Amino acid sequence: MKRAVVLMNLGSPDSTEVKDVRRYLDEFLMDERVIDKPLWFRRLLVKGIIVPFRSPKSAKAYKSIWTEEGSPLLVISRQLQDALDKEIDEPVVLAMRYGNPSPKAAYDSLVAQNPDLEEVILVPLYPHYAMSSYETAVEYAKEQHRTGGYKFKLTTIKPYYDDDTYLHALCESIRPQLEQDYDQILFSYHGVPERHIKKGDITGQHCLQVAGCCDKPSAAHQYCYRHQCWATTKEVARRLNIPDGKWGFSFQSRLGRDPWLQPYTAKRLEELPKEGVKKLLVVCPAFVSDCLETLEEIAEEGKEEFMHAGGESFEMIPCLNVHPLWVGALKKWIGELSSGDKTMELGKMFHERA
Ligand SMILES: C=CC1=C(C)c2cc3[nH]c(cc4nc(cc5[nH]c(cc1n2)c(C)c5CCC(=O)O)C(CCC(=O)O)=C4C)c(C)c3C=C
Ligand SMILES: [Fe+2]
Ligand SMILES: [Fe+2]
């Protein structure tokens, strides 16, 4: 079988220039799976308000984490590509949902290397399913595959939030950090609007409607970001023997005024020192590569908020990045694909739910 691998991440602006950040934010936030409002309203909100006001602020944030080789998200994703490429026979390329390189550019480079390519394995670099992350990335990659008229088959790795090999890699990346003295480890996930969770509920009556919904078995969990984040957290805490009370769960990066998943990380960072949590570890398992949201929002701003509120020490645990066990997990899944159990047909798409 002539196969190849595409690793797909979110994407970053081309530079920290306000004009590049503006173009990136415009593409990102005009995505109907991110800002799920009618087109006329989304245009008004994104192009008229969010992008003009946010771009200079975001450009400044990006400047504080940018490296000589570019955005950390892109640099680390490239390092992962290289590391995996060394481990497997299949060629590995990178694609981004927003900005460059696009899935089309990735497919074209693979076909140029091998015109007889039969299958491309798409690996979304998101462990959890969210309409605004995994779903939009996969749908975009599928659309570019369809419209490009490529001959190869596209096979997608499903969300791996509860996969044993992924959890093992995540636990082993955290374990050494637990040797230091700490009061709590906070699992902080990128947030999404509550509305997205309800929209994604294929039963129409479970998510955020039943008390303790994320702990009660439901078909909705296949597409429920909150359940999947919760499941990762509980399993990591169990495997690492972290006692209840020594771990916390929260959601970061809220945009706008609509209710997002709670508790909010920023609020918890202010409250924790008053609750006696002075020495804090933070881990962000929704991201497999360190990026603006971990390096700036948590490691810089979050640390400042926590210390200002009375915290004594704050340690950010790096994402999986190029951890050998993470590279090993990707290698294992790609090897296993012949059995077909890693593919996922996305269920109810956004336009069907609206
Ligand atoms: C983990 C997966 C992600 C989900 C779910 C997600 C949802 C989501 N994001 C925004 C708005 C923004 N996110 C931004 C940055 C950003 N988001 C993710 C991942 C998820 N987002 C990553 C990896 C990054 C970092 C990118 C990088 O270049 O390092 C930004 C841009 C920065 C900023 O201005 O704050 C925005 C905006 C929404 C609205 C949303 C769900 C609806
Ligand atoms: Fe985001
Ligand atoms: Fe739930």
UniProtKB/TrEMBL annotation:
GO cellular component, one term: cytoplasm
Family annotation (InterPro entries): Ferrochelatase, Ferrochelatase_C, Ferrochelatase_N
Keyword tags: Cytoplasm, Heme biosynthesis, Iron, Lyase, Metal-binding, Porphyrin biosynthesis
Location within or outside the cell: Cytoplasm
Residue numbers binding Fe(2+): H190, E293
Residue stretches in coiled coil: none
Gene Ontology terms: biological process: heme biosynthetic process
Pfam families: Ferrochelatase
Main location class: cytoplasm
GO MF entries: ferrochelatase activity; metal ion binding
Enzyme Commission number(s) from the entry: 4.98.1.1
Catalysed reactions, semicolon-separated: heme b + 2 H(+) = protoporphyrin IX + Fe(2+); Fe-coproporphyrin III + 2 H(+) = coproporphyrin III + Fe(2+)
Functional pathway: Porphyrin-containing compound metabolism; protoheme biosynthesis; protoheme from protoporphyrin-IX: step 1/1
Keyword Iron: yes
Role: Catalyzes the ferrous insertion into protoporphyrin IX.
PANTHER family: FERROCHELATASE (PTHR11108), FERROCHELATASE, MITOCHONDRIAL (PTHR11108:SF1)
Similarity-based family: Belongs to the ferrochelatase family.
NCBIfam families (alphabetical): hemH
HAMAP family linked to this entry: Ferrochelatase (MF_00323)
Protein name per UniProt: Ferrochelatase
Species of provenance: Cnuella takakiae
This protein's encoding gene: hemH
